Amino acid sequence: MIITDIKKQVNNKNKVSIFVDGQYYNSLFDETYASSKMEIGDSITDDEFNRLQIESQKKMAFNKSLGYLSHRIRSVSEVIKYLEKKEYCIEAIEYTIEKLQEYKYLDDEHFANTLVSDRMNARGKGKNYILQNLRKYNISSEITANILENYDYDKEYENAIKLAAKLSKKHAKVEDNYKRKQKISSAMARAGFDWDTIKSALN
Q1: Which of 63, 112, 118, 133 is most buried (CB neighbours < 10 A)?
Q2: Domain segments of the chain as ranges
Q3: How far apart, in whole angstroms, are the C-alpha atoms of residue 164 and residue 153?
C-alpha cells in the first residue's frame, strides 16, 4: 500500500487522515503522525500501521496520564475514563494502567484511604456519603471492606455532633420543634450520616 495523501481532520484537529492508493485508509493522532516520520509516497502494510499506532499511543497515553495525575490523586477508573475520552486504543490504556501501578503512581487502596480521610476529617462527612464516593470512583468491594473494617466510628460520631450543633443554630428560628428536627435530620442524612447516628447526635 502506498500513502497518497495526509490531511488534517476538520472535525478533530488532533488527528490526521491517511489516504492509501487514493482512498481514505485510517487516522492517526498528530503526535503519532509526527513521530512516525510518515510521508506521502511511503509504502506501508496493515500490520505496520497497527503496530505504529499502538506503540505510539502507549507512549502518548502514559505521558498524558502523568499530566492528569499531577493535579490530584486519581483512581484507576478515572484514568481509564480519561484515556477512553481521549480515544486511545485498549492496548495503550491497559499498558498505561499497568505501568502507572508498577511505578506506584496509581493505587486504588491509597486513593480510597486518602478519600476517606479527606471526607471525614476535612469535610466532616458520614459513612454513607463516603461509601457513595467510593462507588463513584469504582473502588473494589475488597478495598471497601477493608475501609469499613478500620472505619473510625468515634470520629464520625464527633462529626455528627458538630454538624447537629451547627444546624441547630442555623435553624434556631424555626419555632416548630418537629419541623426544626426534620430540617436538621435531612441535612445530616445528605451529609452521609445514618438515622441511628443522627438520632443519637440530636439527643
Answers
A1: 112
A2: 3-102, 108-202
A3: 16
The answer to whether 194 and 170 are in contact (CB under 8 A) is no
- Reduced to 3 states (helix: H, G, I; strand: E, B; else coil), residue 16 is strand
Higher pLDDT residue, 70 or 12? 70
pLDDT at 12: 79
**CA separation (Å) from 59 to 66, 78, 88, 201?**
11, 19, 11, 53
- Evaluate if residue 124 carries a pLDDT over 90: yes
| CB burial of residue 111 (10 Å; 0-12, 13-18, 19+) | buried
Alpha helices in 28-107 (DSSP H): 30-36, 46-69, 76-85, 90-102
Q: What is the tens place of the pLDDT at every residue in 23-64?
A: 898 888 887 788 888 889 988 888 888 888 888 888 889 989
CATH number of 3-102: 1.10.10.10
Q: 123-149 burial string, b = 16+ CB within 10 Å, else e?
A: ebbbbebbbebbeeeebeeebbeebee
3-state secondary structure 113-140: HHHHHHHHHHCCCCHHHHHHHHHHCCCC
